[in-house]
Design brief:
By secondary structure, this protein is mainly alpha-helical. The chain is 70% helix and 12% strand. A two-stranded antiparallel sheet has the order 1-2. Helix 3 packs antiparallel against helix 4. The protein is elongated, with a radius of gyration of 40 Å.
Length: 169
Amino acid sequence: MRSEKAARLPTIDLIAQWALFAKFNHYADYFRSFQTNNGEIGMSFTVPLLAGPRVSALAAQAEADAAHLRIEINAARNRISLETRQSYQTLRKAGTAREVARLDLDVARDEVSVLLAQMNEGRASLQQVEQARFIEDEKWIVFYDAQYAAEKAAWDLVRQTGSVLAALQ
């Protein structure tokens, strides 16, 4: 915006040029004094006489572009904040699900232990014990799935917050 407004002001440019020419014998025939090293230095003055509404229009366009970029930055910031909050919620839910699965597994393991003790006493059948072991195996699968979901949620949060390298060290 400042550069567009500054377009109304006069400008001064410093110009410099240097050249190195090859020596040819026939140049001496055409030029009285020929030098292989040649340099020029000078200044250029530009004074805008008829800037018109172009400069103010370009300044307004630059201001509109800056406002648009500020809106996009705020939208991106809000989106990232929302995604981070959702990742934290997912992590908490996954941790809770893992804890519930672990407690459910503990109950199934205790039930198998009780049924084994009852089978040794003759009060439970082998079919009941096998059914309890099958249920315990299913609880192990649910527990491993919940553990995987919790670890995945944690790594997703670490990736999103940009601290992957810190977590690996």
